[in-house]
Amino acid sequence: MGQAVDDEATTETAAEPGTASRRQVIGRAIGAAGVVAVGGVGYGVARATEPGGSPSPPASSASDIVPFYGANQAGIATPAQDRLAFAAFDVTSGSAQAFQVMLGTWAAAAAQMTKGLPVGAVDNNPQSPPIDTGEADGLSAAGLTITVGFGPSLFDHRFGLAGKRPAALADLPTLPGDGSLQPARSGGDLCVQACADDPTVAFHVIRNFARLARGTAVIRWSQLGFGRTSSTSDSQQTERNLMGFKDGTRNIKAEAADDLRDHVWVGSETDQAWMTGGSYLVARRIRMLIESWDTDYLSDQENVFGRFKTSGAPLTGKSEFDTPDLAAKHTDGTPVIPLNAHIRLAGPETNNNQKILRRGYSYTDGIDSATGLLDAGLFFLAYQKDPRRQFVPIQTRLGHQDNLNEYIRHTGSALFAVPPGVSAAGDWWGKSLFA
Ligand SMILES: C=CC1=C(C)c2cc3[nH]c(cc4nc(cc5[nH]c(cc1n2)c(C)c5CCC(=O)O)C(CCC(=O)O)=C4C)c(C)c3C=C
Ligand SMILES: [Fe+2]
């Protein structure tokens, strides 16, 4: 990360004579929070040259930077990066204004970090803590995207948002296979998904957001991920999950504009206009019973998914991208792709043509101290237009019938409404919710 630049604020809320506008109140509070307002109205940050040295040179080139501002949030249709740092937050302050200050501060910080810049000075005052924690100083932006969502619990009485809750943000029902869900790894008022090609750059976001949120919100649970298990662009080769299978072959890809329109981005059909251009994120922490999987015969592993392990081809094909033939039968009349195979049950042919955009990562959190077995698996992330028509029916089918169930346990679950993108400096996620 190199020297910080200033972000210019662009909007101003009209105020009664003699009173501070909401914008001014929020701007001042952001200054007090430690992110220095520049020019009276900005959310930008300035960095003094360190006494005995000079700031680290900018490390980012244009190809490392994914634009933060835009109609949709980055980190959804953006080609999946290699690393994930994810956190769910609970808002602890009862003040709607404090909550907006936090979101405004986060947005200003996000604009900096996604350019490979610190959120504030690392080294300008020996008598106070540095504003940026510093671990990403000198690193490039590494393709960083920061994606923020709102959980169902945010739309209660606290901030007057009950009437703004979209119908699609209904709490997920109890689904088959939910018996191992842990409340401490589930839910949350907010989520932050930070993806980058450098683990330090991704973690830096969660750490600094938690710091900037102090007094307003706290982390409820978090998850680190590695080895993206879903390619989300035709330009990417398909990676493998921890079961050794290529994962993401038939995913929605960034180049498929029709699929994004039909299955991912919320359109004019929404009951809440503030969600137009947004999406819904389902997060599931799915532990794999790896030791048990590793004793399973190859042919059985392939029948679990309905694909060959090495090539990733469907059992009815030769190459990875061959279309599965669900009608194909062996000479004895049994289906080549078993009736309970994962791809048969999860695919659009079985689910009323519904698709989801998967953006999951492998995780490992050491061992389960009760058993000594690895606690590792898939942190499943999926974006969609309406979970009631996409994730819920698909997971209901999988939870009842999937051959994979013998080898997995869902241990965490959360749902978030991911609003459209932040338009420019001075905007933040869901700002119109409070208009
Ligand atoms: C509710 C949705 C899904 C959950 C939960 C889920 C868990 C899960 N999946 C794998 C591995 C693979 N999944 C594959 C395909 C696939 N999975 C889902 C949905 C869920 N998966 C869909 C919609 C699809 C696409 C189906 C199709 O159209 O054919 C594959 C095959 C390769 C691919 O197309 O991506 C693998 C492998 C694991 C390990 C897992 C839980 C741990
Ligand atoms: Fe799957």
From TrEMBL:
Its EC number is 1.11.1.-. It catalyses: heme b + 2 H(+) = protoporphyrin IX + Fe(2+). One of its GO terms (cellular component) is cell envelope. Residues 1-22 are annotated as: Disordered. Binds 1 heme b (iron(II)-protoporphyrin IX) group non-covalently per subunit. This is Deferrochelatase. Keywords: Heme, Iron, Lyase, Metal-binding, Oxidoreductase, Peroxidase, Signal. It comes from Catenulispora acidiphila (strain DSM 44928 / JCM 14897 / NBRC 102108 / NRRL B-24433 / ID139908). Its main location: other.
